[in-house]
Amino acid sequence: MRFLLTILVCANCIGASYYVDSTASGSQDGSSWANAWTNVTQCTGLSAGDTVWISGGSAGSTNTYYLTAYWNPAAGSSGNPITYKISPDIGYNGHVEFEMSGTGINFLGAFNHVTISGDAGDGNRHMSLKSGDHAIYGNGANGGNTIEYFDFGTREKFFYWNTGAGVTMNNCRAYKWQSSAKDNIIFTYNTTEAAYDSIVFTNCFFYAPRTATTGYGDDLAKDMGTGVSFYNCYFEGYTTNYVYGQHQDGIQWLRGNYGKVIGNTFRNIGNYAVFCEAYHGGFTNVVVANNLAYIDYSELQGTTAPQGFVIAEGAGYISGKGTNSFFRDVVLANNNVIDYGAHKAFSLTPAGTGSTADCVFWNNVAANSSGTWTIHSTVSTNYNVMLDTTAAASAFTTYSEFGTNDYTPDSADTVLLDQGGNLSSYFTDDITGATRSGTWDIGAYEFGAGGGDPPAEVVPTAVVGTLRAL
Ligand SMILES: [Ca+2]
Ligand SMILES: [Ca+2]
């Protein structure tokens, strides 16, 4: 009897398993693969902690799940989400594709305490979205949600939510084509004061269109709000005949505190790689560190627009808020800006009569990026280096303009290697995720730390034109 009781308690603890398979032909009660529900919309009777395994068919094949309205997955509870996940089982670990039937339908609206996972254990994204309007749209997502290993596809609208927190998105991908309907991939503005890491993007890949010859193009992340973090993500502006009016920023942060931008890579962004723009007021508790921004496209380098990492008053600030703003506990450190030509790599300054307290500008390196930095006199400034192409070739393991380079300090280098200051009270790793030890190096890469390169993947073929049908 005691044994039985133990089993029951444990079963309740780990949650029950249910099954969804679009090809199932049994009783469709979700109790097994044979009797699986045939769509996620059929799921009923779920409890917090349960797992719904979804079949992608056999390896290499795709099961498509058609939705005629947005998916409203049943919610779990705090600490016990309901998990909707690709099955890792042989015969079911292919690919899950969601396809929206009809126009103007978003894939997800409000969702709470759910995990949606395309992780079959092999590092690939086993879930994707085809057609539909926004991938995620709404005021929901109020806690404990994870979306992972999900390819949101090639589309014009992705993520928009104007309140809420509690979303972690990891190992996802979004490739935006240009349109007049939306000029960003991620748009969120959580105006409620929140802690660090309330909304987290990690190891994700984002692509947005821009022109070759101006700074115009869609933003990749916009507005943001409080408690948003980006870790180890990849942001790229790809070239099109973009015809709309947005200036392309990698992350354009217009409001909010407790933000982290750490270990990310920004390639060929039309305007600013990161622009913390004090549009709604100043910033407190923001860390921008261990990031790499580079240009490897000569036409973009020749335009007037690109800049690296900028934390400053905005050009279009709200009167009485952004102007003369105050920054506290803002850290701009260990970032690399590469091949921006005559452009500016770094700014950390409020304008007008604004001031700062406890702000840090340390350990940054600008290579072949010779614009004069704008750093407020009240900011702690140390261990920053500007290198011309000759000095960069000496300092880095390998360097040539627009080259495929290794920005780890060369073993014989005396400019970056062991020349930085220790900021372990703010962060402890380098861009590869390896722990920094000993005397810190200047720049995003710590010599000898190992850990491999930051994320990179084969870049999809650029979408040239205005709209491309799926
Ligand atoms: Ca912008
Ligand atoms: Ca070192």
Characterization of the model:
- This protein has three helices and 37 strands.
- With 470 residues, the protein is mainly beta.
- The chain folds into two domains: 16-155, no CATH class; 178-459.
- The strands form four sheets. Strands 1, 2, 4, 6, 9, 12, 15, 18, 21, 24, 27, 30, 31 and 34 form a 14-stranded parallel sheet that branches. The chain has a twelve-stranded parallel sheet with strand order 3-5-7-10-13-16-19-22-25-28-32-35. It has a nine-stranded parallel sheet with strand order 8-11-14-17-20-23-26-29-33, with no helix packed on it.
- 53% of the residues are buried.
- Residues 1-12 and 451-470 have low confidence and may be disordered.
- One calcium ion (CA) binds at residues 418, 438-441, 446-447.
Distance, first to last CA:
58 Å
Instruction: Tell me the number of strands.
Output: 37
Low-pLDDT segments, ≥5 res = 1-12, 451-470
Oligomer: single chain
Q: Sheet bearing the most strands, described?
A: 14 strands, parallel
Percent helix among the residues? under 10%
Return the average pLDDT rounded to an integer: 89
State which percent range the strand residues make up.
35-45%
* Helix/strand structural class: mainly beta
- What molecules are bound to this protein? calcium ion
Global outline = globular
How many structural domains are formed by the residues?
A: 2
CA-based gyration radius: 23 Å
Q: Figure out the total of helices.
A: 3
